[in-house]
Structure formats: structure tokens, C-alpha cells
Amino acid sequence: MVPLIKPPTPAELESDKELVTAKFDEAQQILETLKNETAEVKLAQEEQKQKVDLALETVGKTVAELQESGRRREADLRAFKSDIDSIRELIPKVPPFPSSCSCPLRLIPFALAVVHRAYIRMSINVAGFGAE
Hints:
By secondary structure, this protein is an all-alpha fold. The chain has one domain (about 15-90, about 105-130). It is about 75% helix and about 0% strand. The chain contains 2 helices and no strands. The chain has helices spanning about 10-90, 110-125. α1 runs antiparallel to α2 (about 110-125). The radius of gyration is 44 Å and the shape is rod-shaped. The N and C termini lie far apart (about 110 Å).
């Protein structure tokens, strides 16, 4: 009696073993490469995250400084406007020169008032008070 299926010879078994071992070695090498590449990508992502976090922190600080600077500027402009208003109230009202006076000095108070009003309007518009 002869079996229908012939068992493999030791040489065939050895070649199959070498083939399977080579495939396992190749798979192990691929897994090791993937492991190294994954570690590199993870490290690069961590570095990028740190850079983004630092940039966001810098932007946050800058925005806070700009807001504080704006509040100080507005407070300074209000104080400046208040000072100008109080100085304006302290200046005595000068009666106009009689129209019979031909002296050009009679135009000085009028010119000063025009310049003062223009300066106040400019200060108010710059401070944003004129937009209301």
C-alpha cells in the first residue's frame, strides 16, 4: 500500500523553513521601519505642537497688551479732554473789539477760538468720541 499524499522530504522542509523565516524577517524589518517612522512623526508633531502653543501664547499676550494700551490711551484722551475743558472754563471771556477798531489785533481772539475748536474736534475724532 502506497499513500496518496507523499510526505515532504527533509530538503523540502528545510527550504520551506528558510522561505518562511525569510518572510518573517522581512515582515519584522518592515515593522521595525514603521516603528521608527512613527516615532519620528510623533516627535515632529510634538515639536510642531510646542511651536503652535508658543505662537498662541505670544498672540494672546500681544492682544492683551494691545487692549490694555487702548484702555490707557482712551483714559489719557479723556483726561486730556477734561483738562482742556477746565482750561477753557478758566479763560475769561474777552469782549470783542469794537468794529470801529481798524487794528488787526482784534482778530486774534477769534483766530484762537477757531484754532482751539478745530483742535478739540480733531482730538475727539481721533479718540473715537465723535463716532457716537
